[in-house]
């Protein structure tokens, strides 16, 4: 006769439980896992919220832009003159955004002056808004395009540096528009504009090419750089002289038609 099967006390206490009863060790393990998951989720949420708060505070706080406006008038004048001289700077200078913003306002004033001297009659609010939007859009769009080229060619240029360089290159636009407007008061000739655009504007475009040329190591990249700079810089200059007033006129006509329709609708509603 075989001896009875012996069961250890450990198995007897833990494994042999009544039906429907959950062992206490498993319950403790489930509670521990749930607490761990809850703590992990809380830690992830807290870490993410801290990163978001830091990013928002950096972008909201304008103190990081203050060094880019800390320049003297003498430095601004030197950078304006260097922007139309197609030579590489021997001394590295810090980038700033004060000069480009002042050039944008100057360009807007020149566009207003040119439209006032011409026979085009538009509303001041439409003209100012269109001129400011045009100058700012070109500055940002050209900077983004050239910065994308720098990333493509693996060049070590910061976006603030590209903004500063492109902004100072708009000094040539201001010079050409100012000279041509003064000359147009005496006699109207587009040949003089072409001469100023190809000389002064070409020198500023050459300065942009020299600035980005050393970051492009392949010949194909350099050819693309020259084409992009000439298209953006010279194209915008010719657009300001030949196409800006037409765009302003069309916008004014569209807004005028909308205003007339709204006035007619209001009058009809009141009369009925």
Overall description:
With 272 residues, this protein is mostly helical. It has a domain at 92-265. The chain has nine helices and no strands. It comes from Trichinella pseudospiralis (Parasitic roundworm).
Please trace the helix and strand order, writing H or E for each element: HHHHHHHHH
Largest sheet: none
Shape: elongated
- Poorly predicted sequence stretches spanning 5 or more consecutive residues: 7-22, 257-272
Termini, distance in Å? 115 Å
Give me the Rg, rounded: 34 Å
Helix content: over 70%
Strand percent estimate: under 5%
Overall structural class, as computed from helix and strand content, comes to: mainly alpha
Mean pLDDT: 76
Number of strands: 0
Number of helices: 9
Topology (elements, then pairings):
Elements: H1 9-14, H2 24-60, H3 73-82, H4 98-117, H5 124-152, H6 159-169, H7 171-186, H8 190-213, H9 219-271
Main location: membrane
Keywords: Cell membrane, Cytoplasm, Differentiation, Glycoprotein, Golgi apparatus, Membrane, Transmembrane, Transmembrane helix
Function: Involved in the maintenance of the Golgi structure. May play a role in hematopoiesis.
């Amino acid at each position: 006769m075989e001896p009875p099967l012996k069961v250890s006390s450990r198995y007897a206490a833990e494994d042999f439980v009544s039906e429907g009863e959950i062992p206490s060790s498993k319950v403790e393990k489930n509670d521990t896992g749930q607490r761990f998951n809850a703590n992990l989720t809380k830690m992830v949420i807290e870490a993410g919220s801290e990163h978001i708060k830091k990013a928002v505070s950096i972008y909201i706080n304008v103190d990081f832009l203050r060094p880019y406006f800390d320049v003297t008038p003498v430095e601004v004048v030197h950078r304006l003159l260097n922007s139309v001289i197609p030579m590489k700077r021997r001394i590295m200078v810090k980038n700033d955004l004060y000069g480009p913003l002042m050039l944008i306002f100057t360009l807007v004033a020149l566009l207003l002056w040119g439209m006032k001297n011409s026979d085009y009659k538009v509303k001041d609010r439409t003209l100012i808004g269109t001129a400011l939007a045009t100058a700012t859009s070109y500055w940002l769009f050209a900077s983004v395009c050239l910065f994308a080229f720098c990333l493509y060619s693996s060049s070590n240029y910061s976006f603030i540096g590209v903004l500063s360089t492109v902004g100072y290159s708009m000094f040539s636009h201001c010079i050409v528009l100012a000279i041509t407007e003064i000359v147009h008061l005496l006699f109207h000739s587009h040949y003089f504009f072409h001469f100023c655009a190809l000389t002064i504007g070409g020198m500023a475009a050459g300065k942009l090419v020299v600035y980005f040329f050393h970051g492009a190591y392949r010949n194909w990249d350099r050819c693309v750089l020259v084409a992009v700079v000439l298209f953006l810089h010279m194209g915008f200059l010719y657009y300001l002289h030949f196409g800006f007033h037409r765009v302003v006129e069309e916008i004014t006509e569209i807004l005028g038609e909308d205003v007339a329709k709204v006035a007619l609708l209001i009058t009809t509603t009141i009369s009925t």
